[in-house]
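Researcher: Let's run the pair from yesterday's discussion. Sequence first, then tokens, for each.
Model: Starting with the first of the pair.
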Amino acid sequence: MTTKFLLEESRMPRHWYNIVADLPVPPAPPLHPATKQPVAPADLEPLFTRSLIEQEMATEREIEIPEPIREVFRLWRPAPLIRARRLEQALQTPAKIFFKYEGVSPAGSHKPNSAVPQAWYNAQAGIRKLSTETGAGQWGSSLAFAGALFGLEVKVFQVRVSYDQKPYRRALMETYGATCIPSPSPETAAGRAALAERPDHPGSLGLAISEAVEVAATNDDTKYALGSVLNHVLLHQTIIGQEAMLQMEMADADPDVVIACTGGGSNFAGLAFPYVGQTLRGGRRRRIVAVEPAACPSLTRGKFAYDFGDTAHLTPLTKMHTLGSTFTPPGFHAGGLRYHGMAPLVSHLKELGLIEAQAHTQNDCFAAAVLFARCEGIVPAPEASHAIQGAVAEALRCKAEGKAETILFGLSGHGHFDMAAYTNYLGGKLVDASYDEAELAMALSGLPSIPA
């Protein structure tokens, strides 16, 4: 019985997949925050290099992965596909459960799949400094790693609650050579404003984005790098799903259900978009399930509307499922999922009925993560625990219905830097944080007014 399905390096995908080429209805364009008109490439040049802007606006189905990027990817790619046989036995389910494991990367998550290309394209353009934000630290550590490879200075604004919760993730960033600053910080106007209003502000990804964007926009030698949400980031992650398709063929299996966690959407898009694209081109229809935290439920509770990607309203307006750019989620441990909005392309697929969404509580997700760790040996990141909870729920449904379906989920990273969260869970101290309904209502009431 084969447990791990490993691709030869020679079979690593040579192109990223762009789902825009296959959409039956094009997504709404991003808008300039001042004019409310569609963003032009020149509008993005203060933040991004031309190559990344071209990818952001690309419509072709395949975009070639440059060989220097593939050379770095060979450090950990192709990533393994694993059959979770012991988890199946523990659940006594007739379902087959597979997971695509991205925790084998140097930074321990899927995030280097985009960090390496972004760093390389910036280095090729002569850029020497990058600013970015991070929640739990997976993106920050990944960009720090990529910056070290290509000689870039990296400044990371880490959401304050995660900065305090995850000191070893911060240490990893600094080991790679990056500077890590708790957000909100006194270094930027956005940070100072937030601290003046609330000195003990826990931070949010929206606010950390504001700080990182401000640094890039006000310094000619610095560009901005984002770890999720934008089209080019989701594009880079599709190497995950493309590899999974080849590996599922090796396993002589085909998923009935594809599941991944969602915060900004990069990990979900990476696994799911190639499968959705196959359906859009006339292939088999599968259930594609996005699993998000109940404490920050942008897909299940958010409004599909134009909104800012950051709290200080420095970014373009994008049409997405949003809880409101001023919404501050409670400080739960899946810091990478604490974002007020969902990627526009993921939101668009939800509106088209091509994907579905679920929200689960923190304790349920940690229970699933502990079960998984005791069966399969891998301690998952809190973010990835949401995908596991989704997969467990589907496997138990199969058990109840007597159906031997095939489930594929994305294990986006390991939890070796998140053991304080597990200590809290195992000690009965983990709280299912809930957001303030009044704050959510106020944030949604403040959405920008966009003429039809």
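Model: Moving on to the second of the pair.
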Amino acid sequence: MLPKSSASQPENLQTTKDKALEDVQLKKIADRGRKSQPKKEIKSGESETPTHFSRGSSIAEQKIEELKKILGAHKREHHLIVLQDFPDPDALSSAWAYKLIAEQYDIKCEIIYAGALSHQENIALVKLTSLPSQRWSLQTIKGKDLSLYQGFVLLDNQGTTSQLVPVLEKAGMPLLSVIDHHNLQGDLKSEFSDIRPYVRSTATIFTQYLQLGLLDLDSSISQHVKCATALMHGLHSDTNRLMEAKEEDFMAAAYLSKFYDAQLLNAVLQATRSKRVMDVIERALKNRMVQNNFSIAGVGYLRYDDRDAIPQAADFLVTEENVHTAVVYGLVHDEDDELEVVIGSLRTNKLTLDPDEFIKQAFGKDSTGRFFGGGRSSAGGFEIPMGFLSGGNENGTYAKMKWEVFDFQIKQKLLRLVNPRDNPISSEEF
């Protein structure tokens, strides 16, 4: 997601003009475009990439029929929608759409995440639209009676970026659905799956569901308008304001243009950065090293609530002249659960660099076979738990040593791929 800053009056006027032009273009596209399953195992490496848009449409129709059967088979149940620990607009909006769809089958859904909403736009989105989401920390879920829920759903993630999934699996809760636009992260077993890496956002997939009749949006219903606004924000954020969009994404945006609230979306986008976010960006600028057009910066220790300052700093560094890729990382401490994790974000404008491949090759897998990170077009992220080394930061000397060790190790793993002199793999592959 690109950082948004307060704009001067002339810039706001230009934004309004651009928005009006974009709406006209979307409406034109919309006018042109109006013409129970057994348990399924998804194996890593499989994909359903269409050769053209019409095949993509047929896949959407097929998936909708499958999803209808699954929802019909689970009427009047209570489900959990599990998002990544730090959900973005794409995840939040998709979860809201799923919740509204499930309500038609008398299925109650709770949208949960383990981390925090720290990015100013995510906070604004949830507050201004009253988007129904809850934070369940590891301490919170321990006090929950999980027998009240008959299954869980993964949206915009495949369980590798949520602390809650292992707890739910241990409790024996079945995985009902996985809907995502990222590359496959491993082997999954679910009753329903719709994983389409060739689509730029999960919001696009859900908008297709709406278009094809899973839910009839009504512009007179406030909740529908707000959900459409959230989906438009999710779609825009994951396609870099449609600059990286494909035909399906444009068609989805065209459909949403008939329902979303432009003023509400503008209010979300105008959310300002906090001083703490600016401090992290300043640290990234101070600590960055640039090699072969890669900018790499460690920002030290961060509070858990400030985690989203890391991708914002990466968004900022990638705009520097002669830099095509930025990686920013820091050591994040969750005081509630006494957990520490190294969190990093990658942003790139290099078309031949695959963030998913790059991050997986740089950091590999944990002991269970799960990758420490992954990505999509132009963006990626990674999380490395501290484990036994967590805590002890009240000792300043120890805390400094711990950070220096992790900072050095991460830089070495990145430079192995960035610097061709030390890397047997040709940089042209990225």
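Researcher: Give me one sentence on the second I can quote.
Model: The CA atoms of residues 175 and 190 lie 5 Å apart.
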